[in-house]
Amino acid sequence: MSADTTSAIGPVEGTAYDVDNPAPYIEAPRKRTGRTPRATRGNFEMAAWLFMRLSGVVLVVLVLGHLLIQLFLDGGVSKIGFAFVAGRWASPFWQVWDLLMLWLAMLHGANGLRTVINDYAERPNTRLWLKGLLYTATVFTILLGTLVIFTFDPNIR
Amino acid sequence: MPAGTLYRGREGMWSWVAHRVTGVLIFFFLFVHVLDTALVRVSPEAYDEVVATYKTPIVALLEYGLVAAILFHALNGLRVIAVDFWSKGPRYQKQMLWTVVGIWVVLMAGSLYPVLGHAARELFGS
Ligand code: HEM
Ligand code: HEM
After folding, report:
1. Rounded to a whole number, what is the distance in Å from the CA of B116 to chain A's nearest CA?
2. Would you say residue A144 lies in a domain?
3. Which domain, by its residues, includes B52?
4. B5 assigned to some structural domain
5. Rounded to two decimals, what is the model's pTM?
6. What is the DSSP letter of B6?
7. Cα–Cα distance, B119 to B59 (Å, whole number)
C-alpha cells in the first residue's frame, strides 16, 4: 500500500488507494498539520476590523445622543458654558457616557486613520512618521480627556 | 475606465469615499474638541470665551456641516455593518445606500432650524 516516491501524492495526503479509499484522497489546501506552527499569523487586523464594527454600533448611540443634547435640545449651543458642563459632570452617568465616548471615538478614529495612512503613504519613512504622529496625538488626547473628566472641579474659582 | 468594472465609479465607490472623508474630518474635529473642553480645567472664563465662538453664525454653519458628516458616517457605517454581517446585505447594498441618503436628507432638513435658528435670528433680527 505504500506510495512510491515518484507519485504525486505526498506524505501529507496519507495512504493512497485502498479498498475503502478507491480514489486518491487530497488534503484541503492549507490544512493544519502537525508541522504547522500553532499561529501562522496574528489576528490583529481581524480584531481591528471587528472593533470598527462593534465600536461603530455603540458610537451611534453615544455620539448622536451627545449631539442631540449639545446642539438640539434646550436652546442648542446657546446654553453651553462652564455652568452647563458643571451641571452635566455632576452626574456619574454623563461622566461615564463621555468617558466611553472619548475612548471609543478616539480608538475608532485612530484605527481608521491608520488604514488611511496604510493606503496612501507608500514610502516606509513617511508611514513611520505619520503613524508615530497619529499614535502620539491619540494617546495624548485620550489621556487629556480622561484627566479632565476625572479632575473636573466645579469650584475652580 | 476599464470595462466590466462593477465597483469603480459606481455608488459603492462614492459612498466609500464619502465615508472615508467624513471619518477623517470627524477625527480632526474630536481632537480640537477635547482640547477646547480641557479649558474647563483652566478657568470658567477661558472656557466660556472659547465656547462663545461656537455660538457665532459662521461656526453655526460649520456645526451644521459636522452634523451632516456625522449623520452620513453613522448611517452609512450601519449599512457597511449590514453588508458584512447580514446574509442578504451585499445584495441590497444599493437599496440600503439610497435608504441612507433618504434618511440623511430628512434629518438634515429637520436639523436646519434647531442648529441654525439662533444664527438666523442673530443675522436677520427678531
Ligand atoms: C458641535 C457639536 C458639539 C458640541 C456643541 C459639543 C459640546 C460638548 C460639551 C459642552 C462637552 C462637555 C461635557 C458635556 O457636556 O458632556 C463635550 C464633551 C465631549 N464631547 Fe462634545 N460636542 C459636540 C460634538 C461632539 C462630537 C461630534 C463628538 C464625538 C466625535 C464629541 C465628543 C465629546 C467627548 C469625547 C467629550 C468629553 C471630553 C473630555 O473628556 O474632556 N462631541 N462636548
Ligand atoms: C457614529 C457612529 C459610527 C459608526 C456606525 C461608524 C462606523 C464605521 C465603520 C463600520 C467603519 C469601517 C469601514 C470599513 O471598514 O470599510 C468606519 C471607519 C472609519 N470611521 Fe467610523 N463610525 C462611527 C463614528 C466615527 C467617529 C466618531 C469617527 C472619528 C472620530 C470615525 C472615524 C472613522 C474613520 C477615520 C474610518 C476609516 C475610514 C476608511 O478606512 O475609509 N467614525 N466607521
Report:
1. 9
2. yes
3. 11-124
4. no
5. 0.86
6. S
7. 9
Contact B101, B111 (CB under 8 A): no
Mutate to test the interface with A, among B40, B113, B121 (most CBs of A within 10 A): B40
The runs of H, that is alpha helices, within B1-92 are: 11-37, 44-54, 57-85
Please report whether residue B104 resides in a domain: yes
Tell me whether B108 touches chain A (CB under 8 Å).
no
Q: Cell 452634523, residue?
A: B67
Residue with CA at minimum distance from ligand 1 atom 36: A98
CATH for B107:
1.20.1300
- Strand, coil or helix: what is A90? coil
Model confidence pLDDT, tens digit, residues B29-84:
999 999 999 999 999 999 999 999 999 999 999 999 999 999 999 999 999 999 99
The answer as to whether A4 is a domain residue is no
Angle made by CA atoms B107, B81, B114, in degrees to the nearest 5: 15
Indicate the number of domains in chain A.
Answer: 1
B63, A71: Cβ pair inside 8 Å?
yes
Q: What is the predicted ipTM?
A: 0.90
- Subunit contact A56:B81, Cβ cutoff 8 A: yes
- Who contacts B60 (Cβ-Cβ below 8 Å, separation ≥6)? A77, B115, B116, B118, B119
